[in-house]
From TrEMBL:
SUPFAM superfamilies the record matches: C-terminal effector domain of the bipartite response regulators, CheY-like
Domain Response regulatory: 8-122
InterPro entries reported for this sequence: CheY-like_superfamily (IPR011006), Sig_transdc_resp-reg_C-effctor (IPR016032), Sig_transdc_resp-reg_receiver (IPR001789), WalR-like (IPR039420), WH-like_DNA-bd_sf (IPR036388)
Gene Ontology MF terms: DNA binding
Keywords from the UniProt entry: DNA-binding, Phosphoprotein
Gene Ontology terms describing biological process: phosphorelay signal transduction system; regulation of DNA-templated transcription
Any Pfam family: Response_reg
Residue positions where 4-aspartylphosphate is found in the record: D58
Protein's name in the database: DNA-binding NarL/FixJ family response regulator
PROSITE patterns linked: RESPONSE_REGULATORY (PS50110)
């Protein structure tokens, strides 16, 4: 019998009613377990029994701490973070992803949607509310270059860790063509002021721009 892999979750939120409701609901979810809760990031890091797989981070905390600073504190510690907030701004979601969040979910979703996004973040996928993702894809910021479908396909495959040959096969093109697409992508990011010289750089751009959604 296959063993269930449990994803542990910690929450930074000062809404005790929400936390208690989440804890009760997760009691019936076999692969996600709530292991820690705190009203601030500082408190979580001081009291958490052990680092959870995913941290749920609210943006508007009672201590009036800066949301980006809170996120960056967790990211520096290599924590996977899913922002869960009442703020429905696509700009805010984009800012949080670029600062290192693994996903952004608005609080008007149900708990089933939350668990689905937790699973995505645990797998290091970029998890964004569907309505925010649509706005994201429609957005054409100056620093977010427009990529052709072929360029995007090769970029996503290569940045995911594939070799150039494997990425070419995944995108249905020859290795030489795939190389040309990647050079075009790099040139577009360079012209946008966000150079990407290595595979790690490209993976960072994919994450920042939500291209995997």
């Amino acid at each position: 019998m296959k063993k269930t892999v449990v994803i542990t979750v910690s929450v930074v939120d000062d809404d005790r009613m929400l936390i208690e409701g989440l804890a009760a609901w997760l009691a019936g979810v076999p692969d996600v377990r709530l292991t820690g809760w705190a009203a601030t990031v500082e408190e979580l890091l001081a009291t958490e029994p052990e680092p959870a797989d995913v941290v749920l981070l609210d943006l508007l905390l009672a201590d009036r701490s800066d949301p980006v600073d809170n996120l960056r504190t967790l990211v520096r510690l290599r924590r996977r973070v899913l922002v869960v907030s009442v703020v429905t701004s696509g700009d805010m979601a984009r800012q949080m992803i670029r600062a290192g969040a693994g996903g952004y979910l608005t609080k008007d979703h149900d708990l089933a949607a939350l668990v689905a996004k937790v699973r995505e973040v645990a797998k290091e996928e970029v998890a964004i509310s569907p309505e925010l993702a649509l706005g994201w894809l429609a957005d054409q910021d100056a620093d977010r270059p427009a990529l052709s479908p072929q360029e995007r396909a090769v970029l996503l495959a290569y940045a995911s860790g594939m070799t150039l040959i494997a990425a070419a096969r995944s995108a249905g093109v020859q290795p030489g063509t795939a190389r040309n697409y990647l050079e075009r992508v790099k040139d577009k990011y360079r012209k946008a002021g966000r150079p990407a010289y290595t595979k790690l750089d490209l993976a960072a751009r994919v994450r920042e721009d939500g291209l995997a959604t």
